[in-house]
Amino acid sequence: MPMMTLLDEFTPRFDFELREHMAVEADPGEVYATLAAPDKALLEVSGKPLRPRPSVPGFDEVLDGAPWTVLARRPGQEVVFGAAGRFWTPYMDWQRLDRDTFGGFGGPRRASLAIAFSVLPYGDSRTLLTFEARATCTDEIAFHWADWYWHTVKPTARIVMRTVLTRVQLRLNAADPVCESS
User: Fold this and answer.
1) Do the Cβ atoms of 179 and 173 come closer than 8 Å?
2) Which domain of life is it from (predicted)?
3) Which of 28, 29, 111, 132 stands the most exposed, by the fewest C-beta atoms within 10 Å?
């Protein structure tokens, strides 16, 4: 039986999911070190927000604006962050949570959002880096709005996730002057 991920432990039930992978030219330990204590810049996507519609906040705005808390770490393998609130409207409303209150969050017309970065060895000198996001709604009304939001934002959210993964690769390249881009 496969080992449960930390993300699975914090979101055993979820309504929406999005996942992107990238093969990174670095050792898994180096990649994890970049992710284990990320600064705010790692989740920022510079430039104009990637809004699928003018009145719909883009996933980049969610990543940048959420009060992320570290939910758990599995050293060398995975780190999970969580936030909760109403993020599908132009006026996002976030609640402050910690590791202990995340799983039991139940505010009306809200959702919890967990994101995880995980690393796995990929060949001799590469790492498979995964960025996964899961949303869990607190009630039927929240599900209705989050469903609309998730399907609307999904194409641009994938771009945002790939941008974050690429930023990790670029940081690793900058730290290694021998590494060349192709």
Assistant:
1) yes
2) Bacteria
3) 29
Q: Which amino acid is at 91?
A: Y
Query: Residue 90's CB: how many other CB atoms inside 10 A?
Result: 10
**Position 39: which residue type?**
D
CA distance 80 to 115: 6
pTM of this structure:
0.89
Angle between helices 28-36 and 140-175 (to 10 degrees): 120
Count Cβ atoms within 10 A of the Cβ of residue 151 and give its class: 0-12 exposed, 13-18 middle, 19 or more buried. exposed
| pLDDT tens for the 182 residues of the chain, in order | 567 899 999 999 999 999 999 999 999 999 998 887 666 667 666 666 767 777 788 898 898 889 999 999 999 999 999 999 999 988 899 998 999 999 999 989 999 999 999 999 999 889 999 999 999 999 999 999 999 999 999 998 999 999 999 988 888 887 654 443 33
Token pair belonging to 73: 């770490």
Whole-angstrom distance, CA of residue 72 vs CA of residue 126: 24
Q: Note the CATH architecture for domain 22-175.
A: 2-Layer Sandwich (3.30)
**Amino acid identity, position 174:** A
Q: How far apart are CA 49 and CA 32, in angstroms?
A: 27
